[in-house]
Amino acid sequence: MRSRLPAAALGQADEPVVIALACAGDELAFAELVRRRQHRVRKFMYHLCRRPSLGDDLAQQVFLRIWRSLHQLRTATAFDGWLKRIMVTTWLEELRRHPVEYVAEIDTDDAGTLSEATHEQVDLDAALARLPADVRLCVVLAYNEGMSHPEIVQLTNLPLGTVKSHIARGSARLRELLATYAGP
After folding, report:
1. Is 41 inside any structural domain?
2. What residues have CB less than 8 Å from 39, skipping those under 6 apart?
3. Does residue 118 fall inside a structural domain?
4. Distance between CA 163 and CA 135 in Å, rounded?
5. Do residues 78 and 64 both lie within one domain?
6. Which end of the chain is more exposed for a tag (fewer CB within 10 A), N or C?
7. Contact assessment for residue 28 and residue 10, using Cβ atoms and an 8 Å cutoff
8. pLDDT value at position 96?
C-alpha cells in the first residue's frame, strides 16, 4: 500500500500513528517502524546469541514476522508487548533448531561491528555468554528490557520460581565474573 504520509512526515510522526499506518499495510510506515526499533531488536538478539551476524539474522526474522502479521495487531498500544513476544519466540525457536555454542571471546569475523563498544560492555557481553541460555534470556529480559518477573513468566512460559532463581543466579554469576570492575 502506498503511504498516506511522506517519508519525512513519518519520521516526525508519533509512534502510535506510525504503528497504525503500518498495521493498515503502509510500507513506508513499516520501514519507519523498523528504523526506530532495529537497534533495540538487534541488541536484544546479540545479547542472547553473542554473534552479531546471527543477531542480525534473527532481528531480520523478527521484522519479517511482524510484517506478515502486523494486520492482526488490535491496538498500537499493544505493539511493545507484541514485539517482545515475537523477539523471545524467535530466539526460543532458534535454540530449538540450532542449540548455540557460546564462546567468551569476540567473533573475529564480526569484531568490526563492535568497534564502538567499550571494554566494559565487551566484558559484560562475554560474561553474559557464559550463562546458560535460559538464564541469559531471563537476565536480558529483566535488565535490558526492564521486564517484571510476571511479564517474563508470560513470555517464556517458565514458572515464576524458575524465573526468579534464573535472574538471581545469573546476576550473582555476572557479579562474580565482573568483580574486577568493582574496584578495591
Report:
1. yes
2. none
3. yes
4. 8
5. yes
6. C
7. yes
8. 87
Whether 135 is covered by a domain: the verdict is: yes
| Predicted structure pTM score | 0.77
Q: Report yes or no: 142 and 152 within 8 Å, Cβ to Cβ.
A: yes
Q: What is the CATH number of the domain that holds 41?
A: 1.10.1740.10
pLDDT of residue 127: 86
**Residue where the block lists cell 500513528:** 17
Indicate if 71 and 127 belong to the same structural domain: no
- Take residue 88 and report the three cell numbers written for it: 523471545
Give backbone dihedrals phi and psi of 132, rounded to 5 degrees, phi first.
-60, 150
In the chain, alpha helices (H):
7-12, 15-23, 27-49, 52-69, 79-97, 119-129, 133-139, 149-156, 160-177
pLDDT at residue 114, rounded to an integer: 45
Q: DSSP letter at 181?
A: G
**Domain closes at, from 75, 101, 127:** 101
At 87, is the pLDDT very low, low, confident or very high (cuts 50, 70, 90)?
Answer: very high
Nearest to 135 by CA among 165, 91, 95, 106: 165
User: How many CA atoms, within 13 angstroms, populate the side-chain half-sphere of residue 124?
Assistant: 14
pLDDT for the residue numbered 90? 95
| Residue carrying C-alpha cell 573475529 | 108
Residue 97 and residue 64 share a domain? yes
38 lies in which domain range?
A: 13-101
List, for residues 22-64, the tens digit of each pLDDT value: 998 899 999 999 999 999 999 999 988 888 899 999 999 999 9
